[in-house]
Amino acid sequence: MSVVGPSRCGFFLSRLRFSLLSRITCVTFGGQMSNLLNYIQPRLERKLGSWAHLHKCLQLKLFYESYCIGVMSYDSRSFDLGKIIGVGDKNDNRVQERSILPLLNFFMVIYVNEIEKFSEIDGKYQNTRYIYLKIVIYKLKFGDSEERARNVIQIDIRIKGALLSGRLDPQCYWYDGELLEMAADLASRLLPAFENSKTGLPHPRVNLRDGVPKNSRTDTCLAGAGTLLVEFGVLSRLIGDPVYEMSARRANKVLWNLRNIKTGLFGHIVDVNSGKWLGDVSGVGAGADSFYEYLLKAYILFGDHTDYIMFNETYSLIKQYMRRGRSHCNSGYGDHPLYVNVDMKSGGTHTTWIDSLQAAFAGIQVLAGDIEEAICTHALYYTIWKKYGVLPERFNWQRMSPDVSFYPLRPEFVEATYLLYQATKNPFYLHVGRDILTSLNNLTRVDCGYATIHSVLDMTTEDRMESFFLAETCKYLFLLFDFDNPVNVQSNKWVFSTEGHLIPMAPWLREASNLWDHGPQDNPSKEAIANSSRANCARIDEERTFGLPLKSQYLNQISSSFGVNFQ
């Protein structure tokens, strides 16, 4: 859906920019962060291993301006729900499955992203969250005049996840439970995807009024079948009905039993009726990434050790079969570590490309406590970003060039940058965030929004701004620089869903053994608590915190390989 066309809002945006820049003031507090290690810093570490307070203020200025331009552009196209349903070519399924999403996604961007931050800048934003909540409650209906099948995973993680996150917001004290009712209604409309399957794996598409269409396709990706547990589990615990969580858990169990008997790896495309793999590529990028992510996050939220066992075994096999390069990130000799796509039957290299969604794997490694590996995974994608200014959708690591060259403003690399900064507090990742923000404004910004890059080779753009740009890319950039944000101050009390929705780590979510004996959680405690799981994270040494996370010689190695200059 196009939201970045001609500048019909230029006058308003110019006034908005002036308002933002005039109301935010920045003061330096002693210059750069001090280096706590007594050694002479190499040039790269002097440049990238420190961060001035003034830089934070300048980045937040730029972010506020950029985000508000995007929000107001989106608003101009999505305020009237009637203009959203049915937008696009009726023969284009890619447009159809997204046409229902923009209004709710736009609202939840504001709602979950703490719009009070904008209220501090400009009074006109004080009531935005309330207004858009009312629009969603009174105008968004599921199944009315529904003619098309919708993508099950996208409806679940985007819309239902947003409704549940809004329901669990501690500041949501003035409404009558409509968000939870809408989430339950939507989930019931997704259940036929499971019930009409011969294996328990969900069909990829479902009509929200009529169920699974006759003669619909039955092939789905690993992530499409296995990335439903968090939202379905939270809903089951909120309303006291296990059917939703059990459906998602059954699908995960079916997938687990379909692993290759020799390697233990998953394929990437499976038939939901026969249970046969139709695609034997095994990787950690598109079509698979969120499956691994949700095995780990389900354990963090619900405390079911089965989820952790499945994740831990899978992660070990991923490192065994997919990892290439030197054995350790910051020591030894050899090529820079890289996770490649392999054949699920043999573990041999299957393709010579990696994709931009794989950048999120560094964030999963952070949550798993494998910080050193996350540092190396992230460094690879940062180098590709520096080479082109953005990330191409697919990059061929053998030919050192893009295989698929567009960039639709994806959030995965930004998310990994944010999580690594939270884990290490290394200012290097603030420099990365500044590079990202600078590239977005210099290369993708247009009069009324931000445009998809059609080709990273010539930086031509498309008249399209995906909803995840506001819902995730901007959110993680904002949180990266907003050091005192409550989400950052109490980061051990929250989990981000795969779509960037906040879910509190509340005690009632982890009481799985006797949950269903107590009935629905009509008024669950909204107080978030720290995960009671025992920490097993491998600590990184102080040099990685106050110097470069990836040692200078290894950063120079990868930059030389890609023809990138970090100096």
Automatic annotation (TrEMBL):
GO terms for molecular function: calcium ion binding; mannosyl-oligosaccharide 1,2-alpha-mannosidase activity. Keywords: Calcium, Endoplasmic reticulum, Glycoprotein, Glycosidase, Hydrolase, Metal-binding. GO terms for cellular component: endoplasmic reticulum quality control compartment; membrane. It comes from the Eukaryota. InterPro entries: 6hp_glycosidase-like_sf, EDEM1/2/3, Glyco_hydro_47, Seven-hairpin_glycosidases. Pfam families: Glyco_hydro_47 (PF01532). One of its GO terms (biological process) is carbohydrate metabolic process. The keyword Glycoprotein applies. Transmembrane segments: none annotated. Its main location: endoplasmic reticulum. Ca(2+) binds at residue 498. Its cofactor is Ca(2+). Its EC number is 3.2.1.-. It is found in: Endoplasmic reticulum. Belongs to the glycosyl hydrolase 47 family. This is alpha-1,2-Mannosidase. It comes from Meganyctiphanes norvegica.
